[in-house]
Design a protein that fits this description.
There is one protein chain. The chain is α/β, with parallel strands linked by helices. It has one domain: Divalent-metal-dependent TIM barrel enzymes (TIM Barrel, Alpha-Beta Barrel), CATH 3.20.20.150. It is 38% helix and 13% strand. The protein contains 10 helices and 9 strands. Strands 1, 2, 3, 4, 5, 6, 7, 8 and 9 form a 9-stranded mixed sheet that branches. Helix 2 packs parallel to helix 10, helix 4 runs parallel beside helix 5 and helix 9 runs parallel beside helix 10. The longest helix is centred in the N-terminal third of the chain and has 23 residues. It is globular and about 50 Å long. The chain starts with a helix and ends in a 7-residue tail after the last helix. The N terminus is likely disordered.
């Protein structure tokens, strides 16, 4: 039965349905997501070019000089304290002057003096010259020989010089014991004896027979003309051939003062020998002094020029 109430309810329902249909008809895109905005254009990154800086090529280092074989006929030098002279400077001076070797101090039995291996390396790099060692003999021949052989092997040195003076004086048996033991340990190494100008009291015969050269100490700066190189040569000639005698001159300030290369050169020339040495390389030896000896080597042939 249709009553006014029912009509009112029906009217309200129709009105609500018409409102919903009208909303979807008027707003058809309400159920769809909004479209994304178009991407913004990105401006291109400018390309820059950098000019490479100019390059300079460093000059190639000079190659080390060729190695020189050890020979007593060359000139040489003794060194007591390597830290007192720059190895590169000394190496260059000796090589340019025509010298052929250096010997560094190793100490004595019971009192070793370790060498600076970096010094030796730098000296050889600058000069190409062989480096040997020298020791002071203290009188115990067996210990002296063993110490010398051990140090030579330890440091890889090229030759050896024994300094035998007062402790071997009047003891020719000690000299024989030393060279016998040393040659058992080092049968082939180049070796020399440094001793007093007239060293007959130590017994020179064993040294000569064992293949040692003789380097008499012609220290005119200390003891005057009585130890001139020619005097030393005459004293040793009964034991060594002239070819095995090579005087050593002193560069230090002795009892007679200093002596320059110009003073020593005529004395060395008068001795008639080939090959000499200077004691010691780190004392009073300027570039001019080394080159003065070098000039004498070239012109007066007091040594064979190492080149």
């Amino acid at each position: 039965m249709i009553t006014p109430k029912n009509l009112a309810v029906s009217g309200m329902s129709l009105l609500l349905l018409a409102a919903v249909l009208g909303f979807f008809t008027v707003h058809p895109a309400a159920s769809k997501p909004a479209a994304a905005p178009p991407p913004k254009a990105v401006p291109p990154v400018p390309v820059t070019t950098t000019t490479a800086p100019p390059t300079t090529t460093a000059a190639a280092p000079s190659p080390p000089p060729p190695r020189i074989a050890m020979s007593w006929n060359n000139a040489g030098a003794f060194i007591v304290h390597t830290h007192d002279v720059d190895p590169t400077w000394l190496g260059q001076q000796l090589r340019s002057a025509g010298f052929g070797w250096v010997a560094v101090y190793l100490g004595s039995s019971g009192d070793a003096t370790p060498i600076d291996r970096d010094w030796v390396y730098r000296f050889i790099l600058a000069s190409g010259l062989p480096v040997g060692g020298w020791t002071v003999l203290n009188g115990n021949a067996h210990a002296d020989a063993g110490f010398a052989a051990r140090q030579l092997k330890l440091d890889g040195l090229a030759f050896y010089i024994a300094n035998a003076e007062a402790s071997y004086q009047g003891r020719p048996g000690a000299s024989q014991s030393f060279v016998t033991r040393f040659r058992q340990l080092e049968p082939t190494i180049t070796a020399g004896l440094s001793s007093l100008c007239d060293a007959s009291g130590i017994g020179l015969g064993p040294w000569a027979r064992a293949g040692f050269a003789f380097l008499p100490q012609a220290y005119v700066n200390d003891f005057g003309g009585n130890v001139a190189p020619s005097v030393c040569v005459r004293a040793a000639s009964a034991y060594f051939p002239l070819s095995a005698i090579h005087p050593t001159v002193g560069s230090y300030k002795g009892q007679k003062g200093w002596m320059s290369p110009q003073q020593y050169v005529p004395l060395l020339a008068a001795a008639g020998t080939t090959g000499f040495s200077v004691y010691n390389a780190e004392t009073n030896m300027s570039a001019q002094a080394w080159q003065a000896y070098g000039q004498a080597i070239r012109q007066q042939h007091i040594a064979v020029r190492a080149s």
